[in-house]
Amino acid sequence: MCRLAEMTFELDRFLPYRLSVAAGRVSRRFARLYETESGLTNPEWRVLAHLAQAGTVSVRDIHARVDMDKSKVSRAAARLEDAGLVRKQDHETDRRLVALSLTEEGAAMMARLGAIAGAFQTELLAELGPSAKAFEDALNRLSAAGNTGDDDHDDDDAA
Amino acid sequence: MCRLAEMTFELDRFLPYRLSVAAGRVSRRFARLYETESGLTNPEWRVLAHLAQAGTVSVRDIHARVDMDKSKVSRAAARLEDAGLVRKQDHETDRRLVALSLTEEGAAMMARLGAIAGAFQTELLAELGPSAKAFEDALNRLSAAGNTGDDDHDDDDAA
DNA sequence: TATTGATCATTGCAGATGCAACGAGTCGAT
DNA sequence: ATCGACTCGTTGCATCTGCAATGATCAATA
Known about the structure:
The structure is a homodimer of 159-residue chains.
Chain A: H1 15-38, H2 42-54, H3 59-66, H4 70-82, E1 86-90, E2 98-102, H5 104-128, H6 132-145
Antiparallel strand pairs in A: 1-2
Helix pairs in contact in A: 1-5, 2-4, 3-4
Chain B binds a DNA duplex (30 and 30 nucleotides) through helix 4.
């Protein structure tokens, strides 16, 4: 049971490494698709996609939910606003918050990108084959386990 | 059959996103372990780990094998050399190449880090439970599929 | 041999990133 | 109403990263 004492460490079998390589490759593969289509960077894509899903939310929401640094979200949102894809308004009751939402143009963009993403998703599922279900389960476990230790006391709607 | 036409795109179910988040969390979790122990950055850890596995190799070998940009490998190797963990020698027959290898000190460091990594690996496997096997299979498929002939690669979230 | 084209490691540079402030705003207790 | 502790979004700054040269070296060919 104690395999820790092996003399030579094998990077190829180390899960964090393999996970990272796989994530990088898949991300780059997908990035080639939407970059040529939209000119968006990865943080911009993520913010846009989250807005399409969540409606009107704040920077903090995205930061907590999407695992991106606040400044990253803020800068991505600023660029998206310049591009006319996202609207920044004052929150109704709490003026510290920024209410981010998609513009018409942003929604149209996400319609196109959503189709591309959907097609890529089915492509990936086909590559995964029967492992797909267990794979998603594993991703859930790992993401959940990594959630401890940060400074967050989330209380908002968990989901 | 045709689920692509859904009106609202759901980021939560998009595999590249979930994969990236999981990889980032796991990497950061592991990074906390070896950073406090060794003071190494992630690229440095990867180079060191690969050297422990591969013996004496060139920058190009690591670049191709570990999915890191050449310059990233080069700079990491330079820092490791300054720290006395890695030795850079001329290649015997081809003087373009650099022969990277671990020093005594580097090997000792890897012995400690290898133990930490092994413990973390078993921790992850425990969290994964029965999905572990299918998960590794899925990682293999995804890494292989992303390997489309290109030369230069690098990834976002590191381990 | 001289020359051309390829490969290898390094470096310059522009842009991205993470982290720590900072100002603005909110809430509760006094 | 005021004070103090807290939260939110932005920005400064040091560092990191990716990409495109650059210089050095090799292999092949004339």
